[in-house]
Structures are given as structure tokens and as C-alpha cells.
Amino acid sequence: MAADAHGVAAERLKSFVERLERLEEEKRDVMDQIKDVLAEAKGEGFDIKILRQVLRLRKMKPHDRSEQEELLETYKAALGMA
Questions:
Q1: Which of 65, 70, 64, 45 minimizes the C-alpha distance to 54?
Q2: Looking only at Cα atoms, what is the longest distance across the chain?
Q3: pLDDT tens track for 4-28
Q4: How far apart are CA 82 and CA 66, in angstroms?
Q5: Predicted confidence band of residue 82 (pLDDT cuts 50, 70, 90)
Q6: What radius of gyration, in Å, describes the C-alpha atoms of the chain?
Q7: What would the mean pLDDT of 44-49 be, rounded to a whole number?
């Protein structure tokens, strides 16, 4: 592997940088697509904050989700909100 004057494997470094640049571009594209879908959902009357909460909940394991919901109900009851 060829190294420059500072001992850096230049071709390997260039490969990493180019891969990262491609991934950053793909990430921007995906973020734009997410933004478009959220805008479409909002245009049809869906609440975006709630949609994001639903997505977060769906990522959770069922046991963790029910535990969190029980704790939330406990806190709400303690605060007189239930």
C-alpha cells in the first residue's frame, strides 16, 4: 500500500472519503423522501408529531412499549391527568 510523506495510505483514505461522501448523499436523498411523505400525510390531515410517535413506538419491543405506557399512565394518574 502506497503511503505519502506522512505515512498515510492515500488510496485507502481516498476510498473511505469517497464512500462516506456517497453515503451522505444517499442520506440526504432519503431525508428528502421522508420529508415528502410527511408533507403528503400532513396534506391528508394526519398529525405529523403523532406519526413520529407511532414510528418510535413501532420500533420498540412490545414488552418495552407496554412498560412505557403503564409508567405514563401511572405518572398521569399521580398528576391528576387520568
A1: 65
A2: 69
A3: 667 779 999 999 999 999 999 999 9
A4: 17
A5: confident
A6: 23
A7: 98
